[in-house]
TrEMBL record, chains A, B:
Transmembrane segments: none annotated. This is Transcriptional regulator. Residues 1-93 form the HTH arsR-type domain. SUPFAM superfamilies: Winged helix' DNA-binding domain. Coiled coil: none annotated. One of its GO terms (molecular function) is DNA-binding transcription factor activity. PROSITE patterns: HTH_ARSR_2 (PS50987). It comes from the Bacteria.
Amino acid sequence: MADPLDSVFAALADPTRRAILTMLLEDDMAVTDVAAPFEMSLAAVSKHLTILTRAGLISQERRGRVKWCKLEPDALRTASVWMQSFGQFEPVNLEAFERFLKVELSEAEPMETKDAPGA
Amino acid sequence: MADPLDSVFAALADPTRRAILTMLLEDDMAVTDVAAPFEMSLAAVSKHLTILTRAGLISQERRGRVKWCKLEPDALRTASVWMQSFGQFEPVNLEAFERFLKVELSEAEPMETKDAPGA
DNA sequence: GGCATATTCAACCGAAAGGTTGACGATTGC
DNA sequence: GCAATCGTCAACCTTTCGGTTGAATATGCC
């Protein structure tokens, strides 16, 4: 996987890993505490954390016998920027991009879902 | 995969599919033309297009024996909003966007020098 | 030292991803 | 009508993914 976007998007594709990122948004956490809310084993969560780390989405720092997990938003920014480029069709129109962002951020709360493009 | 974010991010995790989306950014294309620049078989590309369709990232419309593929950016927006509402980082900065465009567009070029489908 | 705690490793498993090939159903054009 | 074109389907293969379990490796505590 040469392209970092590969690993970032692959990491984001799993609901458990997205939930972990959301948890880490509030605070840094130890591995055991990250694992607590999930039904799966600790080892499974540990694997998820490895995947998130390799994607650059989190960092892990060991202090004593506890490993602390910390959100690393930079990797998310890269992917976000990539996706933004599809939001508007004039690739170099930064004004449109700016307008788009304003609308986007103000609508950040209601996550509407759309499907069935067949229409 | 209940959550639409699952399928959207999973679709974006593959470099072939991201390349397809970039191609469709310029114009709607027939399946055969989409497949032309890639080394893999037509059937493989057809599968990728099915995945993109199920994620809602593109739509496919059959006219005669040709099936046209069209970008559907709305699905991307859902994922984008998720990342924005998530990010502690300041709203995507325009410099990063500009830098991204330069890199992305210069990388997209050699792929299309083959037969320039849909140009 | 000895034991509990924190985390990973290793081996294994079933399912899904991503690719191939060959056959097949439509559609078009001569 | 028949052959070429467009695209998918079906079967198959290999690799990766996401999970399990049990053992192993630190580390902290008394």
